[in-house]
Design goal:
alpha+beta; Jelly Rolls; four-stranded antiparallel β-sheet; 19% helix; globular
Length: 290
């Protein structure tokens, strides 16, 4: 198979209009993912794309390079507008089961043409008893971790996203010929941990979306990105919220950039940042001196 060959899509429907809240939630619960068509206006998609270009790509990005901003909300005024977008927030309320929400994580990614694929992985592997990284500290809840907009569209040819249907279940096992890494984070070819599963793995679903469509996937869903064979940079951004209770504690003090962001948040949106932890991407537990 070539890099953009696709497994036949599922027979069930997995793309919905924003008003179909129960159907979106049911598909995400049952199969671990869903697409929401026209979740935001084209104008807002344009604003978010502009913020990515102004912040993530502020410095030159080399050919074949990928770059990620893991605290995008702190530099992207457009992303705050999602909190005032009724269809988007109604979906968040339905998926999370409450209207009392707080900002959890945000990110923006740029991938240049020619960048290689990202192998199959989950953002919620088996976690150690105590966190050893920032991701360990933050990816601890069952709330949807995938709430992504591909602002230049998602397709197999342009480095778009794929998921493995039904892989969000805690007892999921890979199909014959594939295996999981020891902490269940990565799917690889059986017998060769260096080879990621390949887009032809049974259950793979290519997610083809427009710039204002939302990709939803569950906390444990295995996902991957195709190699980028297109001619223009691929821009994407995501924002995850979480229920306010129980309150999440992290092992780092609130970063100064997060303090500035919270202080600058308009009063009518302040409730969403009460409890925002920010992120120290390179955090590691202190190792006692010998």
């Amino acid at each position: 198979m070539t890099a953009v060959d696709q497994v036949a899509p599922p027979a069930y429907r997995f793309a919905f209009a924003p008003r179909e809240l129960d159907a979106i939630a049911a598909c995400n619960d049952e199969h671990g993912f869903a697409i929401v068509r026209g979740a935001i206006t084209p104008a807002l998609a344009d604003e978010i794309r502009t913020d990515i270009t102004a912040t993530v790509t502020g410095a030159p990005v080399a050919a074949l390079e990928s770059r990620c901003d893991v605290a995008f909300i702190e530099r992207a005024p457009s992303l705050l507008k999602l909190l005032e977008c009724d269809p988007y927030m109604r979906l968040q309320h339905r998926l999370l089961g409450t209207t009392d929400l707080v900002m959890h994580r945000t990110a923006a990614i740029i991938r240049q043409p020619g960048s290689p694929p990202i192998g199959w992985h989950t953002d919620m592997p088996l976690l150690p008893p105590a966190p050893r990284s920032a991701n360990d500290a933050l990816n601890r809840g069952e709330w949807p971790n995938g709430m992504w907009f591909y602002l230049t569209g998602s397709s197999p040819e342009t480095g778009g996203l794929a998921v493995i249907a039904d892989s969000h279940r805690p007892d999921w096992t890979p199909p014959a010929g594939y295996a999981l890494s020891g902490n269940r984070q990565f799917v690889h070819r059986a017998g060769d941990q260096a080879v990621h599963g390949g887009m032809e793995i049974p259950g793979a679903v290519q997610l083809v979306t427009a710039a204002n469509d939302l990709i939803v996937f569950a906390a444990r869903t295995y996902h991957a990105a195709n190699p980028h064979l297109g001619g223009a940079a691929r821009l994407s951004a995501g924002m995850a919220l979480r229920p306010r209770r129980p309150r999440l504690t992290v092992p780092w003090p609130l970063p100064e950039s997060a303090r500035r962001f919270i202080a600058a948040t308009p009063p009518h949106l302040r409730r969403y940042v009460d409890g925002y932890t920010g992120i120290v991407a390179d955090w590691r537990p202190e190792v006692p001196a010998a």
